[in-house]
Queue: 4 jobs
Job 1
Amino acid sequence: MEISIHGDREFDDIPSLKSKALKINLNQNIYGTFAEIGAGQETARHFFRAGGASGTIAKAMSAYDKDFSDAIYGIEDDRRYVTESRLRKMLSHEMALMEERITRDHNPDKIFFTYANTVATIDFAKQFKGHGWVGIRYQVEAGGEYNEIILHVRFKETDARLQQETLGALGTNLIYGAFYKYNEPKKLLRYLYDHLDKDQLEIDTINFSGPVFKNVDNRLMSLQLVKNGMTDAVVFGPDGNNVLPARIFYKKNILALRGSFRPVTKVNMAMYKKSYEMFIAENKVDVKKTVVVFEITLSNLRAEGKIDEQDFIDRADLLCALGQSVMISNFQEYFKVVEYFSNYTKARMGLAMGVSNLVDIFDEKYYRHISGGILEAFGKLFFKDLKVYLYPMFDPKTGNLINSENLKVYPRMKELYKFFKYNGKVIDIEDYDESIMNIFSREILQMIEKGETGWENMLPEGTADLIKDYRLFGYTRRPLKPLTLRRRAAKKK
């Protein structure tokens, strides 16, 4: 029997959409509104068809006309309608009406909710497949504080009717999960795909907030999206919240640095700073439209065959503390990273990397699963408006400096490498610091785990203190400092 995306359930164990909607309808206390824009009232339809909706649905509406929509929810600064801001206004407005019109005096046991979505389905030319924002604001007890789940979807189907049905199923799963799986957010996330397939839609952003989700780390939920195959990559900013990839990458020049960052070192930051200086000096690069992202692949997060979530948080905390955005991806090959960015921008892209990473790019074994092999991969990689900024290294055997001029790729790849090198696709970072080039993350990690000293000076300023204060990467050598205890107490407040 085929196993579903959920991992802990087989298809036969998944409740039907009708049974989910009916369970909500038969709960005499759950009461709320549906506001759906852009794809019909597909979610509300499931609840009407299930029966017993009169005790659950206060109102279902679609403000399709833009003037009507603006009159109800206000005008967005950017004049757009399929945005997170629009969704939040919808949730706030509809919940305010609920509280105004349904008094607690006559309805002391009612648990309010508002479900909303604002989407754009596939266009007639079938060039833009569509996307949307979906969310719910709700209580879990009468008179209690509100919780929110807000997510962004990208449609993959090429028929508007199918996209509408997909949205209806997703909405039903979300409402059911919000009420009956809120105490198991990882399961709630997986169950959003009940009766759906990954080929139908992609969830690339999700954020949980409110008292029932006070212990949920949205960065970990981002990791779950990638881990479960719901999306290929997610992005979160220095504040720890998930960021819509389109928001950060759309029409931007992108400089990406891939690494394990376990932990982030002086070499990593030197590579970033020097490559950034070179990148923004390019004629085609507008510094005001340039973003930098540190990328960690899922393969770099695996420990003993599974994802080490605490290890992920440790790395993320350090990068965020340095003011960086982080992308977690499912891309093993660099050309897939470039393809992903190409979904959002045609502007120049840059990859900053060390010598060993560039040598690996020219290893054929990574491209055997591609029908066109390494040539197809390189066509996707280097024929974009892309440059590689190469940070040199010292040969551990000879002590000689290795850069793009003398690095050794696999013999069959020599001519291919020369082609891209001498066409200006690979550029050496010449302003390097020899004093830090023998610093390696794996050696620092071993020193930390063994309780040794001396690793502190190999990290960016302030990073060692964070590792010690918060016991990152297994640091347990000293008891917590009083200062650290005060910091944690202040953070809890």
Job 2
Amino acid sequence: MIDLHDRHCLNHAEREAVARCPECKQFYCRECIAEHEDRVICASCLRKLRKARDDKKYSFASLTRAAAFCVSFATTWVVFYWIGKILLSIPVAFHDGTVWQTSFWNE
């Protein structure tokens, strides 16, 4: 069995390997690895993990945006509907200018 110090980096053949990626099982030098969530992982596997996580996040985000649009559209429709109902309930005398001539106290 070959020890770690006899291995060389997959990306830099002249450099000695210092770690093995647990995802792809390849050996890498210090420049090619990164610590992520308390483990050492290579840059290409880290990109794959982040892309998978971002894809999940964006798919849920689009669903959230669509739901927010539907709720805001329904709320706006209800508000304008009630404003229209209020405007329609105003008596015609108000527009003629005769509503000011009536006294509410004398009725």
Job 3
Amino acid sequence: MEFIKEEGKIYCEDNNGKIIAEITYEDMKDGTYNINHTFVDESLRGQGIAQKLVEEVIKEIKNKNGKITATCTYAKRYLEKNNME
């Protein structure tokens, strides 16, 4: 699966251009980035796509030397489980 990266958003589309998986994050202006939304289409659920999205965002934030927090419940659980928050 190929992810498209834009500022504050990582996603993938189906062949028709419909977003089928997405994660968004915002720069809190103090060096902290908040992961605030994760979406995975029903057709992709159970394949670990949400986890891959979170891991991609973490890489992006670390490349910016930022701190990570999350208000998205999925991302928050991931960070807690991996001792990252």
Job 4
Amino acid sequence: MPLARCLDFRTSVTELPLKIIRFQQECALPVARDSLAAWHFAPGAIQRLLPPWQAVRVIQNDPLANGSITELQLGEPLGLRWTARHEAVEKSSGFTDRSLRGPFAHWVHRHDFIVQSGQRSTLRDTVDFAPPLSLGTITPSGLWTSPLRRMFAFRHQRTTNDLSWHSRFAGAPRRVVAVTGASGAVGSALCAFLTTAGHRVIRLVRGTPRGSDELRWNTSGRWDASPLSGIDAVVHLAGENIASGRWTAQRKERIRSSRVDGTRSLCAELAALANPPKAFIGASAIGWYGNRAGPAVDESAARGEGFLSDVTAAWEQASKPMIERGVRTVHLRIGIVLQARSGVLGKLLLPFLVGAGGRVGSGEQGMSWIHIDDVLRALHWSIETPLLHGPVNAVAPAPVRQIDFARTLASVLRRPCIAPLPSPVVRLLFGEMGEDLLLGGSWVKPTALTASGFPFLFPDLEAALRFELGRMR
């Protein structure tokens, strides 16, 4: 399915009295107004709308109502707080955000949902703002409106993408889905994605639950899984980050234990239920295939060699109780996830932005990548597709060489691609982790997903990077 685009995309900037600038952008969407409004009123909408290239974190997000509050933190680890109050809330037609505290001297943002006809509606964002008092008289308006153009182009496109996807399942029942690793980069995005479609998400946490949609579980012992009896699916994403430091013996054991022991505990309790979940979707990794120079492999390939391959095999084996219990089980072998502020892309951005990006090692190693939104869609597709089971590769159809990835990223960022990182330096700096993750690679095909009819949103690397980094226009 080709990427659904905003229809009749229009932007305008107007100078108002009292040094107020009005920025307005609208686009027509191929969905009814009720669907557009429901998406915005869902609890996960604000997270879906935050620009991924910016360091923004949601501190407070009250349900949309007159007088309710949203608070964001801009920048990490300290950052600036931005607090807004919701006004003029009309569930079918729109709402207003008024800044109470933040970086601008004045900020009022109106969201309008406008009927066109039938399955067509218009999303209009109108922002009246004044720059910070110390800067408003000495900076041109374009300095402030240019980032808004970039941000709202992304917001409107993601809204279109999500609504187009959810409309595929408009006739299906709303699901109840439990998610482990819900605070991680993929897990938090998945929770937001599912709730904007009207599904109920139960976050499995290891601390004290903070509400009815959280449930405490134990990665190494007994726990009460009875609230998950009969739910539609469990998505298991929990696991230690494999790329956050050198692989010492202790760290390798934590990586293995967090995946294998956690999966074993989770599946033992779920399988013991009289009415277990209907599906178990377990995150796995293309590390199963090891480092391979080629040719491309798919789910039919034998396991590779090395630490990651061993861990991945044990990880998938730990879910055997679900298979024996008759629960449909999917091992989603996820490739290199493109997210602007995490994973491989997050680590590469700063070097490339300062002109220090380029070839790593030989540059010939394969990079089997996938955009984060296609990961979310693949997880949801796995829930909704009864015939899908066993290993499923979650990678884009066109893996690339590392040097081609580097050149594409540099082009999107308008930076040179000239700074090599030789293999000996990688081994010195990162040890075994660098050997496996930076110098190694594999060429993996998504045969099972493609055969099931899964439509990739981003089969093309450049388009994926442009969207994720806000460089579409």
